[in-house]
Amino acid sequence: MKKSYLNKTVCILLAVSVLSACAAGKTESAEKDAPAVIGLQRADTESVAEIKALSAESDALTLWSTYWDNDNDLVAMRELAGSYEDISLFAAYYKDGEIFVPEATTHSMNELRRKSLTSDKDIYLSIVNDNEKNGKTEHKSTELLWELIGSKENAEAHAKELVDLAVRNGYDGIEIDYEKIRKDIKLWEAFLVFEEKLLAEAKEEGIKVRILLETQTAMSELEGRFPEGPEYVIMCYNLYGGGTEPGPKADPDFLAEIYEKFKNLPNTSYALANGGYEWIGGEKNASQIKRADIERIRSEQEIVPVRDEQSKALYFNYKLKGKEHTIWYADEKTLSEWAKKLTELSGGKVKISYWRL
Fold first, then answer.
1. Which runs of consecutive H residues, i.e. helices, occur in 230-270?
2. At residue 6, does pLDDT exceed 80?
């Protein structure tokens, strides 16, 4: 009886070993075939749903990836490689007036080029006019812009510097995200000179250009003055946010107003934002909040959000430590409806940029 028991035990152990080996082989093979997986990570379900929704409703889709969240972004970009066309890595900025590319951005670029699913994507380096001085950052600095492009000589040198940076690091394009120019026509004059210099340098080196424009851009004074050549990306968000009462990042009337304002620009695309804003205690100083964090709060508070009929955005209220919190945010249905509105306005599907992974 003991011998029989041992034999059975050996057989069972051998069988388990064989099955384990087979399973390990299958797992290894599956991991090789599954571009979505880095270690044990997968793209979060919210990003997957949102990107697929926008992919279905757009003519072409660009994803923004930020340097402070690049590891999670790399997972999503690999998993969803068939759902978008371009990638914009956000962002290079300035330290004491000198261009600075974060190490995480360079890491993302190298990883994207290394993986076969993303190696052929057009990758842009996004440049912002944030300037770090003595450890403190001035966001969207127009003072910095005057230093960089305030004269023709500086504008030409700056254009060459950016194109050289892109070529040296293997980027396909440059994205200029210089903000808060708004109604400063003199600064716009300088920017247009810089843009012409940039386009000339970029054309010579085979580099693509994207120019981001805020909704507050003084288009009535600049009508017909923006040159052909780049892709003009119109920011279609922050209808409500920091400094306002609670509300959605966009709604149909807002999108219609933006479309009308920028419709005569050549080669336009439209940036839509996911996530949302959170207002606390009735104050207007709202803070941005990611969709994943919103879903966590909603689950912890056991809240069913309400969908706003006009904007299609979601919102809910909850109390924490005696203070009233209000969150407005977009989900995949919201983003899909905003994209459909732009399609309706333009008479066909438009190019969309997704802020952000």
1. 252-262
2. no
